[in-house]
Amino acid sequence: MKYLIFAVIGAILTVQSAVAADKKLTISVYSFAQDAYKKTLYDPFEEICDCELVIETGNSVERMAKIEANAANPVIDMAVISSHDALALARKGLLQNLDVSKLSNYNDLYEAAKNPLGENWAVGYTFYASSIVYRSDLVQINSWKDLLSPELAGRVALPNITGTQGPLTLFMLSKALGHQGYGFEETIDNIGAQADDIVTFYVRSSQLAQLMNQEEVIAAPVGRFAWSRFSNSPLPFVWANPKEGQTGGMNVMIMTKGNGNEELAYQFMDYWLSVESQTRIANAKIDSPANKKVKVSDEVAEGLTYGAELIDSLNIISPADIIDNREGWVERWNTKVIK
C-alpha cells in the first residue's frame, strides 16, 4: 500500500511538472539590458506564474517582420515596441484589441499611457525624453536651432533619419526654425545644406557616446535612456533645456492577433505594469515608469523620464504622423542629406 501511495504522488508531481513545462509565453523585446530585465522582471514572474518565458530579441524591423511573417500562426504572444511601430502593425491587422479590464494596474498608469493608439491596440509601459547633450565648458545650448549654428560647425552630430531619434530631432528643429507641417521638407533641406558641418549622422547612442568622450563631437540630440553614458563621464556634459522644450516618446505593449495564449500574456503584462515591477525596473535604471504610483529617490529620478510634470511637458509627435510621413522623410533625406 505504501508503495502505491508513493507511486500516485509521484505520478501527480510528474503531471504537474509537465503542465508547468508546457505553460510558455513567448515575448519579443528590445535587445538592451536583458540581463537586468531577467533579474528584475523575468525571473520573478516565472516564480509566480509557474511558467516559462521564451525571450526573443532583435531590432524593430526584424521583430516586426517576424510577427508579420507568422500572422496566420503567431509564434510571438506579446511584444514591446515603439508606439509608431505598434500602429504600423495594427494597421496591418496583426494585433488584437486589449481587454484592459484584465489589467488590474491599468488605472494606475499615466493618462498618456492608457490608450496611446486608440481602440486599445496598445498600452504604454515606459516614457523617454530626448534633448541635446553638450559640453558646458565649450558651448551653450539654448535652442534646438543651435545645432545648426556656426559655432557648432564641425563639432556636432545628428541622428540618422532611420533611428528613433531622427524624426524627433526633425520635429524639434522644425519647431525652432518656424517651419510648418510634418513633411519636414525645409528642415531636411537645411540639414542637407550644412551636411558637411555635421561630424556624423549616428545610428546608435553608443557610437555617439564614444565620439563625445573622444571630444570629436561637443553637442548632439540623444534619448534620456542613454544619459548615463554621459553623466558618468569625467567631461562636463550637460542635459539641455532648450526654450522650445524637450521631445520624447513612449514604448508600448502589444498582443498578437489570435495567438491563443492571451490569459498568460495578460498576466505578464499586468505584472510588468505593477508598482512592484516598475519600481524594480526604475531603480535598476533600465526604463522609466508608466505607473504613476511608482516612487524613486531623487538620484534615481535624475537618470529617468520620471513624474507627471516632465511627462506632460514633452513635445510628442503622434504615431500616426510618423507612420504617414516616414517614407517621405527617408526619401528626401537620402536625396538632400546623404546625396
Describe the structure.
There is one protein chain. Helices cover 43% and strands 17% of the residues. It has 339 residues and is of the alpha/beta class. The strands form two sheets. Strands 1, 2, 3, 4, 7, 8 and 9 form a seven-stranded mixed beta sheet that branches. The protein has a two-stranded parallel ribbon with strand order 5-6. Strand 1 (24-29), helix 2 (34-49) and strand 2 (52-57) form a beta-alpha-beta unit. It starts with a helix and ends with a helix. Mean pLDDT is 92; it is low at 1-6 and 8-20.
Coarse structural class:
alpha/beta
Count of DSSP E strands?
9
Please, what is the average pLDDT?
A: 92
In which range does the helix fraction lie? 40-55%
Beta-strand percentage range: 15-25%
Poorly predicted parts: 1-6, 8-20
Question: Mind describing the biggest β-sheet?
Answer: 7 strands, mixed
Radius of gyration: 23 Å
Mass-distribution shape = globular
Helix and strand sequence: HEHEHEHHEEHHEHEHEEHHHHH
What is the straight-line distance between the termini? 84 Å
The total of helices stands at 14
